[in-house]
Amino acid sequence: MVTTKLVTASQAHQGASLPAAPYDTSAYDDIIEGSIDTVRVEVDDAFHDMKTFHNLEPDEIMRMCGGHSARLSEIRVRIQRIEDWKREWKNIRTREIEPAIEELDRQYTIASRLHSIRELDYKLETGER
Description:
By secondary structure, the protein is mostly helical. It is built from 4 helices and no strands.
């Protein structure tokens, strides 16, 4: 005769280590000059602006990309200064800031090409060479 023993979820995990206590994402850091939450807001702002690029002129897009990229690059450098002992910041840098900077770079390149095409079209219309 085979008997089965029901095991509760808490009993099944008795030997496993518990996850680390979650860190406070709203905690202000002097070196970063903000918290994880405020940095995420800046990343979200950049993506929000990127959603409007299809309605903007290429030179406007290039200026916005430059501004967001400069600010996020500054934050990235500040994070690199502390991520060895505040490890929660590394994921913010690698999973949120760096992809945002890469997308801003891609959008800048697209806008730059559109600007060049428009300039060429203008020159062709006016008879310039």
